[in-house]
Amino acid sequence: MLKNYSKYRFIIFTAAVFLFSASALFSQNALSKISNRLSERILTIKANETELVWIFFTDKGKSLNKYFEKPSSVVSPRSLARRAKYYKDRPLIDETDIPVNQGYIEQVEKLGVKVKHKTKWFNGISAYVKKKDIEKIAVLSFVKKIDLVRKFKVNRDIEKPKKINSLPNNLLKLNSINAFNYGFSAAALNQLNIPALQNQGFTGTGITIAVMDAGFSNLSHEVFSNMKIIAKWDFVNNDSVVADQPLPDSGSGSHGTYTLSIIGGFKDGKLIGPAFDANFILAKTENTQSESPIEEDNWLAAAEWADSIGVDVTSTSLGYRDGFDFGFTDYTAADMNGKTTIITKAADMLASKGVVVVNAAGNEGTRLALQQNSLVAPADGDSVIAVGAVTTSGVLASFSSRGPTADGRIKPDVVATGVGVYFANGTPGATTGYFSGSGTSFSCPLTAGVAALILQKHPAWNPMQVREALRMTASNASSPNNNIGWGIINALAASNYSPTAIDDNKNVVPKDFSLDQNYPNPFNPTTRIRYQVKTAGFVSLKVFNILGNKVATLVNREKPAGTFETQFNAEINGRTLPSGVYFYRLTIGDFVSTKKMILAK
Predict the structure, then answer these.
(1) Rounded Cα distance, 248 and 509, in Å
(2) Are residues 323 and 421 in the same domain?
(3) Which of 100, 328, 438, 595 could form a disulfide with 419 if both were Cys (CB 3.0 to 4.6 A apart)?
């Protein structure tokens, strides 16, 4: 089979070469830079037709020290402060924070390339390129790979809203037991025990949340009157307008309005979100016109923007699985492994930089019920909090996507109210009116709002500790499964939880020296390593390859007694270490402990 595949790829490449240029030989090295998908696509289009492609670069050039000497030149002080909370033994920035080499960009632009987005995390650009120019780009020495940007069409049939004219009687009864008059929000918020936490004064104050969604068509609604929106950007059209725009500059819609009102709206007696006093940034990442595909590079660009601004939590009610435009095959259950899709890699990267990443698990539970899983990317991410949906009586919604991931991890992580959820009217210009709908798109912002309340109460907690608190206090924590994960979240209980190795306990002296197993494991490209120091002393923590050669020094300094955590990034000097087995060794005086970890790309 491998022989046949190689033969097929050779035929495609050879044909592509012929179509590129009849007069010049195309080097094997340049040929290898073009993905199979792009090679196939080249055969079907004319010389002057344009494609949206990824162009990845080999490095970021020279003279990078200036960035490391002044980290605030590449990310905001707020982002640095967020990372400093638990980046105790590593620099606050790494090479993934360094901008893409502008000289490389200018050189490819001279070849007719129109840049759409830059990605410093993956060191490249998305750009519109004519078929006839792909060969010229591929032969450039600093170009590493060229691939198609994936495009797909979203199906929101499950989430179609229904207009609500009056408050149901059961919600009127619920409101009498709470300090706020929650109106339509009462059932969902009470199910998740959110009012009990809000009654303590935790409403999201000081926390910044990024809502990454389709267009925010109606920010004039009454629930947004006092909302603190500090930044907005449309990544579809690359402008600051996230509301309706006339065609062809489309990419607007009501979905973002719905999810934003769920997480942070406030109108006493009508609708109250969990984190109504938080700061918000709005990123429009989808073109919702029925004939227009959604492009994955928009979400990646939004994630990098959110990180650089310094957000604490992201809420994303979208997912990638199938319905792709031609030139792509659909993702399968096997691809939901945490390391295949670029959006999942980006989500995990965002979490590694200190952001709590919350994503809808997906609405494919019924349609893809016979497959190994029905997850959508990036819900399969190792560090992503994937949220499923239940009714207000606690029954799993039939549409809610299920796990496990292809590599065997339990998903979703948790579930929240996702049936009959109320939200603001998304019609442009409407200041009143409310709708209800169902979908993991709506359980996601409720959970993200709870994460914001937890961070307000525990500002030193990192994303994994927030996730641990949500999981371990949920309704099914004693027996997590691939239908509801760890269960229905409990906001108050999660806020009272004591995660392992939290900064609040740094004065508690461990009984022994010890080294924990890294998490996640296997990993790509980052993992966390926790260790305990019984008495103050010189601590060394190093990473070795299977040949015994040192590849990284993570800690090499005096440390007081306490529990510590550091991160290992397999991307070193712009290049990722090969997949395989690595060892990390902790040395503290006479104490030596070594453990094994696996880098799986």
Answers:
(1) 62
(2) yes
(3) 438
